[in-house]
Fold this sequence. Notes:
By secondary structure, this protein is α/β, with parallel strands linked by helices. It has helices at about 10-20, 25-35, 40-55; strands spanning about 1-5, 20-25, 60-65, 75-80.
Amino acid sequence: MIPLFFDKTGNAETFLKYTAVIADVAKLQIGIQIGGSTIQDAKEDMRIKFKGAMATGTSLVFYMDKIVGKFKQGTYSIVQI
Protein backbone atom coordinates (compact mmCIF):
# COMPACT_ATOMS: atom_id res chain seq x y z
CA MET A 1 0.00 0.00 0.00
CA ILE A 2 1.37 3.42 -0.99
CA PRO A 3 0.35 6.39 1.18
CA LEU A 4 -1.04 9.26 -0.88
CA PHE A 5 -1.22 12.65 0.83
CA PHE A 6 -3.51 15.48 -0.23
CA ASP A 7 -2.16 18.59 1.47
CA LYS A 8 -4.70 21.40 1.41
CA THR A 9 -2.60 23.60 3.72
CA GLY A 10 0.61 23.61 1.68
CA ASN A 11 2.69 22.76 4.75
CA ALA A 12 3.58 19.17 3.90
CA GLU A 13 6.16 20.18 1.30
CA THR A 14 7.93 22.40 3.83
CA PHE A 15 8.01 19.59 6.41
CA LEU A 16 9.13 16.99 3.88
CA LYS A 17 12.02 19.18 2.67
CA TYR A 18 13.71 18.39 6.00
CA THR A 19 12.69 14.74 6.38
CA ALA A 20 12.65 13.23 2.87
CA VAL A 21 14.07 13.40 -0.65
CA ILE A 22 11.63 15.28 -2.88
CA ALA A 23 11.30 14.66 -6.61
CA ASP A 24 9.42 17.67 -8.01
CA VAL A 25 7.41 15.98 -10.75
CA ALA A 26 5.50 19.17 -11.63
CA LYS A 27 8.71 21.08 -12.31
CA LEU A 28 10.06 18.24 -14.45
CA GLN A 29 6.85 18.05 -16.49
CA ILE A 30 6.82 21.80 -17.11
CA GLY A 31 10.46 21.65 -18.23
CA ILE A 32 9.59 18.95 -20.75
CA GLN A 33 6.53 20.82 -22.02
CA ILE A 34 8.38 24.08 -22.66
CA GLY A 35 11.32 22.27 -24.22
CA GLY A 36 13.88 23.11 -21.54
CA SER A 37 14.55 19.45 -20.79
CA THR A 38 13.83 16.00 -22.17
CA ILE A 39 12.17 12.89 -20.79
CA GLN A 40 15.65 11.39 -20.45
CA ASP A 41 16.66 14.36 -18.25
CA ALA A 42 13.59 13.76 -16.07
CA LYS A 43 14.37 10.05 -15.79
CA GLU A 44 17.94 10.83 -14.77
CA ASP A 45 16.76 13.31 -12.14
CA MET A 46 14.35 10.70 -10.72
CA ARG A 47 17.13 8.08 -10.72
CA ILE A 48 19.44 10.39 -8.77
CA LYS A 49 16.67 11.21 -6.25
CA PHE A 50 15.87 7.50 -5.83
CA LYS A 51 19.54 6.65 -5.34
CA GLY A 52 19.89 9.45 -2.76
CA ALA A 53 16.86 8.28 -0.81
CA MET A 54 18.09 4.68 -0.81
CA ALA A 55 21.59 5.74 0.29
CA THR A 56 20.31 7.80 3.22
CA GLY A 57 17.38 5.57 4.17
CA THR A 58 14.85 8.37 3.86
CA SER A 59 11.52 8.51 2.07
CA LEU A 60 11.28 9.45 -1.59
CA VAL A 61 8.39 11.86 -2.18
CA PHE A 62 6.97 12.55 -5.63
CA TYR A 63 5.72 16.12 -5.31
CA MET A 64 3.05 16.55 -7.95
CA ASP A 65 1.68 19.99 -7.01
CA LYS A 66 -1.49 20.34 -9.12
CA ILE A 67 -0.73 17.50 -11.54
CA VAL A 68 -3.42 14.82 -11.50
CA GLY A 69 -2.13 11.28 -11.64
CA LYS A 70 -3.96 8.16 -12.77
CA PHE A 71 -3.71 5.72 -9.92
CA LYS A 72 -4.86 2.13 -9.95
CA GLN A 73 -7.67 1.74 -7.41
CA GLY A 74 -6.73 -0.18 -4.29
CA THR A 75 -2.98 0.42 -4.49
CA TYR A 76 -2.91 3.49 -2.26
CA SER A 77 -4.34 4.85 0.97
CA ILE A 78 -5.50 8.47 1.11
CA VAL A 79 -4.45 10.79 3.95
CA GLN A 80 -5.81 14.34 3.97
CA ILE A 81 -3.80 16.93 5.86
